Each structure stands twice: as structure tokens, then as C-alpha cells.
Amino acid sequence: xxxxxxxxxxxxxxxxxxxxxxxxxxxxxxxxxxxxxxxxxxxxxxxxxxxxxxxxxxxxxxxxxxxxxxxxxxxxxxxxxxxxxxxxxxxxxxxxxxxxxxxxxxxxxxxxxxxxxxxxxxxxxxxxxxxxxxxxxxxxxxxxxxxxxxxxxxxxxxxxxxxxxxxxxxxxxxxxxxxxxxxxxxxxxxxxxxxxxxxxxxxxxxxxxxxxxxxxxxxxxxxxxxxxxxxxxxxxxxxxxxxxxxxxxxxxxxxxxxxxxxxxxxxxxxxxxxxxxxxxxxxxxxxxxxxxxxxxxxxxxxxxxxxxxxxxxxxxxxxxxxxxxxxxxxxxxxxxxxxxxxxxxxxxxxxxxxxxxxxxxxxxxxxxxxxxxxxxxxxxxxxxxxxxxxxxxxxxxxxxxxxxxxxxxxxxxxxxxxxxxxxxxxxxxxxxxxxxxxxxxxxxxxxxxxxxxxxxxxxxxxxxxxxxxxxxxxxxxxxxxxxxxxxxxxxxxxxxxxxxxxxxxxxxxxxxxxxxxxxxxxxxxxxxxxxxxxxxxxxxxxxxxxxxxxxxxxxxxxxxxxxxxx
Length: 566
Description:
The chain has 566 residues and is mostly beta strands.
């Protein structure tokens, strides 16, 4: 039996590049848990690679909060006397710790000084890891701000260990100086610099304008209005930029990790996808388009981005980019389509909470946010994740060409099974079945078969589990799982996983997929004799079931079920 798969689509005055998914993907059920209170206008939440969270207060103070939500009694840094008016959009606005902070002890902040101009400064920690030295400041960049608003404020280190600095267009309204499109000013840009120096910084040689005499070499992107918050996906390296809009549109831009820089996001020529002031501008196709926009009439007035969740605890949030509107309190998540990785699924969550000034993540990937007015820090949780964490698929061969696939724990709910290729469940092979297992027949009809499960528990918690991958077995072409000359250990894995290669292999690609069909890790393997060991660091992977797929240069393909434990 082959039935069409459908999905309920959400349309709410939103614009999205791409198509809807044939896979039933449910919106996460987000709730907020108070994690800390009493902070003065918190605007940034950052980790330093350890168990602590650093809360940036707009008036010029950085405080530390421990894993239980208790603040350290003394501030980590207090530069209140150097920070200009902390009202409106000025103040201490951003904090970033480099990847080598544990050994280097230097960190970076973005603030507006008493003269209203932006400073990107370097500070050093003291012998007490909870106290920084305010006298250690080195000002790396001093940027004139013609108006008090649109200062940007975010600083983040990318996967390349370089510092990215987001600057607004200089303020007022409508970018009256056309600074975002002017290559000889840093305003309205994303900058990229190398701070691994004793003094100052250097220009990375691969910056897109490093040798262009007509453009400042620090520039990585152009055409931004006010990139208040942006985020690097810790799994993919993609850069997600939430750019605050003008009169009508708020937007999210995504730079893929493979980008060489040089994107132009279109402001002030375009606001979102709509023309704003096209005098002297190129056609729309010359600019990079946002992946998501919402309008002020129905969505809100000021976007706060946003983090791609990659923690362990919130299983149903895995891979979702979470964002909010500061004014209306409406929230969304954006999720990569498992069948079309270049397409995003929009999940409107309705009103969750307003006045959210920032999102941040802990060292282990858990998601937090801050309310500017109340001073509260919240942990973002997904109500169904605890139930979903217990879901796992298992499979066994039980004669002929059939597999038996079951959901472990046998929870009560509605089950629908799908079979297809390993990237997308495109054919329904069984209708509603018994709650413990289903026999999937004629597995040899598929060149490379995968089994998926759409499950909704009686408590209303949805899950899309899969893929479990199988080789063709009926014609003696291959056997399910890795050949006996391969080995994968330990099982279950905790901190590390190892694969011992077969003898005489010609090389290929080894990819590990999670139960949502997303590639968790991949390695290209050169051909070698028996004894070569491939290692994987699984310490930050979510516990659960994974599938390892080998695609050899000689055309061989094998799959192996894996378990990762806490």
C-alpha cells in the first residue's frame, strides 16, 4: 500500500523561502523555567567553555551565574564608569570568549563609551577565574556613532576562531547616510578579525575584501540594518543573523558555513524582501535574501535572535532555531526539512513572552533567554522532550526478506510507519499498526531502504523517528549491518566511538545520522588495510539511537545501528 504523505502547513502572514515538507513535523511545545532573577537589564548570555553562564548587564557589569542559578557575589567585570547612557540601545552590549580562553584568559566586549561611540575591547581575567581585571582593557576598534541607536552590539567567535562583530547602520531611521551600502565605513556591516595577537588585531588573509583598496578589509558582510544578535550553529557552523527591521519587516539571514564571505543582505535598498530605498541600488537578485521574514502588522516589531538548539535535554528542539519578537512576545522556531535540507519549516509558537532581549546557550548546548525589564533569566525547555527521550527504534530480521521494527518501551499512541531512502520517508508501507512492532516486507524493492516512524503519544507528544537503514539482503548482494570484518565499539558509546576498518577497502565516506535523519558527523576515509581505526567524539551527542552509513568508493554500502548513552 502506497499512500501520499501530507503535512499540516501553517500560514500566518509569514514569508518563507522554499516549500513545505512531505514529512509530518510538529511544532515544539516551549515553556520557560526561571533560572535566575535580579539582573539589571540583561542583554547577553554567554559561556566560557565551562559550567558557568555570564550575564551581561547593559549598565556595564558582567555577572556569573552557576549551574543551579545562583549568582557569584562579586561581578566578573564592572566598567560602569566607562559605559555611556545605558538607556535605549547604548551600553555594554556584547561579550565573547575565544576557544582558547581556558589557557589564554582574554575575552572581548562591545560597548558604547561615554562619548557614544562603539568600542571593541579586550580584557584579561585575574588569578581568580571569577574576576576580570578592568585595568587590562585594550581598545581594538573605536567606531564613531552618528546617532544613539542601531549600535548592533553582538560579538561572537566563529568555528574558525576568528572574532565576528555586528554593527548597525549608525542610527536615526532609514539609514540616512546610506552607510550599510558604503564600503568605506564599518557601520551596517559584519566584521571579521583575527585577535590572536599580543596587541591589536590582524586582517584574515581570506577576508573577501582583504586586498580591495575600495573596501575596508575588516568587512565580512554588508547591507545590515541592526544585527542585534547572531549565532553560529555549533554542529554545522552556519551563521544565523537576526536583523532588526525598519517599518514593516523583520528578517533572519543565514550564511552557510561553506561561504567565503562577501554577502550583501540588501539594507537600505531592501527591507526583508520588499524595496525600501532603491536609489542607486542594483536589482533585487544582486543581494542575498533572508530565509525568513515576518511583518509588523501580524508578527511584531523587533526581532530577537536566536539560537539553533544542539543540547541533549530537549530532544524535540533538536536542530530548531529559536527566535522571538521583543515587543509582541510571539515566538517561532525554524527547522531544516529532513527531506530537503535547503528548506526551512516554520513553526509559529504564538505568544510565549515579550521583552526577550537575548538568547544564549550553555557550554553543553542548553538554551537560555533573558527578559530585559524583569531581569529574569529563563531556561528554555520543550514540554514533550522528556517523553521523547524515551523513544527509540529497534529492528531485527525475522525470516525471508522481512524486518521487524519496533519502538522500545511500547508507549501508547498512534503509529504510522514509512519506508523510503535514507534522506526522506517518501512512501507509506504500512497503515496504523500494532503498538509494538510491524513487519516491513519486500525490503529488496528499495535500492537502499530506510524505515521511519511518525508517532504521537496519548499525551500529545509527537516524534518523528528514523531512519533505520538496511542493505539489500534477498539476492545475496549484501547483508544488513557492517560486514564481519568491520567492528564498531563500544556499544553503547559515551565519550568516544571507534570504527575498525575492513581489510583492503578502497576508501569512502562514513556518516552518522540521528533519528531525525540529520547528519550528526561525517568523515572521509582513505583506503587502508585492516587495523585502521576511525574515532568519533560523542561526548556532546544527545543520548539515543543513531545509524552509521558507509558509502565506499567501490560502491559498497553498509549500515549499522549505534547507541549513545549519557
